[in-house]
Amino acid sequence: MTTRRHFAFGAGLAATAALAAPSIARAQTVKWRMVTSWPKRLPGPGMSAERVAERIRALSNGRLDISVMAGGEIVPAFGVLEAVGGGVAEMGHTASFYWQGKMAAAVFFTTVPFGLTPAEHVAWVEAGGGQALWDDLYKPFGVKPFMGGNTGVCMGGWFRREVKSLAELRGLKLRSLGLGGEVYRRLGATPQTTPPAEILTSLQSGVIDGAEFVGPGTDIALGLYRVAPFYYYPGFNKPNGTGEAIVSLKAWEALAPDLKAIVAHACAAEANYALAEMERLNAEALAVMIKDHNVKLTAFPGDLVAAARTEADAVLGDMASRDAATAKVHESYKAFRARVSDWSRVSIEAVLRARIG
Question: How far is it, in rounded angstroms, from Cα 282 to Cα 275?
Fold first, then answer.
């Protein structure tokens, strides 16, 4: 009898534990929302956002489950920073130069005209002191930033008509963000801050005469070639394309240490993978656009590039005088670019020239 009672009691405990286990697992699952600046599953940055969420879910065995929202689903494309910092969402995927009006130095963490290439930029952020500066800059806004993707070297942009000289740029309305937009303004164009999902319709309606976005692998998905067949290079305005993943500081501090490590690793892995993927996608998409869509691949006129280089130096100099935080980031970025320039010239630049012959 005693044995039977002990067995029944033990069986009851086991059953209770079995029933409780799913509840405990559910209680341990943290659910986040990620708001983004991108159309749903847009090749390049849109897919980076999806993959970051998928990696976090997989690496955490479902303990951290993130739902990804396209730009405009919960907040506007340019409202991601406020949404994450204000607790509307726990995480965001966007680009730092969208916050230039709130903190001028933010642009350095995406790209600046004639600035660091993708590999140089990663070196600055991860090994040259850039991440600490980024963290300090964003802390007052209640978010922690990570590199969460990279679209690589960007193109100069799409134009409805050919631009044969600097003079022909003047008066054009161009979708161009960050400091590249300010360079274009000083060259006589009028920069526009058009959200990604509205670029095509703005070109179609004539609201804008041209637009820079990313590179071929992403641009092809927006169909810009249908109304603006002239595709210009080099992308002096955006020589890098770091995607930004931001996490609410409140949500971040509430995470267990292993989940923090998982989030950081997932973002870093995507920064690396996205750059590799975009090299492939850009090459393939450019070939398709030229062959099948009659895109006219064209180099910017020399006088335009030369004038842009001069104006870019002036723009960066003016920025550095705005406030102490901007001056600090600018000095770090400028010093790092100077340090790596000689190496880049005798390494990647020299190899590419030798390969061409």
Answer: 10
